[in-house]
Amino acid sequence: MSAQQNQNAENSDGRGGRLSGLTTRGRSFLAAGLAAMASGMLFDYKVLLRVGALLAVLPLIAIMVLARTRYRVSCRRALEPARVGVGQEARVHLRLENVSRLPSGTLLVEDRVPYVLGSRPRFVLNKVEPHGRRRVVYRVRSDVRGRYLLGPLALRLADPFGLVELSRSFSAQHALTVTPQVHVLPNAPVGQAWSGRGEGHATSVAAAGEDDIGTREYRHGDDLRRVHWRSTARTGELMVRREEQVWQSRATILLDTRAIAHRGDGPASSFEWAVSAAASIAIHMARRGYAVRLLTETGQAVTAAAHDSSAAVGLDFEGMLLDALAVVEMSNAATLSGANAMLRQGGGDSLVLAVLGDLSGDDASELARVRHSTTSGVAFAMDTASWLGGSPQEYARARFQGSAQVLRVGGWRVVEVEPGDRVPDLWEQAARRGTGSTGSTGIAGISGDSSSGMEMGAAR
Asked: What string of DSSP letters covers 340-355?
């Protein structure tokens, strides 16, 4: 990703100085000078009095010189790249320019960064000539996803003797987005699709034939330009023209972000594994031509149309998806009711992939009822009790197995997840199970699915 620069340079004005700007050395000089002057007057020793006066005056002269010095410095920061994955490094470029007509003194530069990105970078720049430029580069990395602000940049101007330092800071900040880890998944089909793109996709034909010009109810993702307003006014529900419907591959990725459904802390928690898996699956499906919708149990969704010939469409969705997952947090929701409602309203999904935490029996039963007979469902069920370390208790294991069995009975293809499992390996496992359940090498269906007589599979 290309670097993003701040085009609005800001100025730092170095006028003014106070005794608070004295360094430890400057305070020591001042204290020693005052003590020497007091001793000289007490013992009537003029030489000691002169030495004390010199020591005390030096810091004051330095303050006056800096106070009368007017310096103006502009700064420009660039992040390369502005979006990185967990554990990857980003480079921060700083360009400082002295835009005044006078040379600056020694500049101490410090950029403020969050502690998760490492220690604050500090640099010393020697005297910068009028209109002179200095470039500084440092690296940051984080093992925790999120959106972090870098800056503002702070400058400290010091006198040649190091007696006084005056601090000034800019106000500009830049955001660095640390995205979850994205795994490259094998090109193995895990479900059937409803578009003519790619290999191994199924074709669906309307019951009334290709020339049917009737209407049907509006479904999530339909183009509003296809709305048939006369039928809408007559029925009171939003209707679209059937002849203009374009069948396409639609996949919904459900990410369970409930706090009560996950275990563990930090990057090794079950929640972070789930976020990484959801990002990997969503990007993989979008690159295969699916119209992808990322859904959480709260009902919030990130959507994108299927890829066309323009690569920019896919890159925009991937960036939007990664930005959303970089800042996703666990919710206080107790059930998956919000996600279930969105799945019912979606309609037309050819594939639903769910990354699930700890499920109660009611949640599993509700998900089993949500899956339609024409929709393939793959559930990556996480045995979250295993994330606590050691062997899970019997009742926790029995609850997990019971919820998984409820999903299987409802027609879901369930892949059990334990700590240390890799997403690409589980993806291949899901594809193998789907192929085996149909007895075909073409479409990877799911066990228990009933196929309509109006649908045909194109063998790979």
From this structure: HHHHHHH---SEEEEE
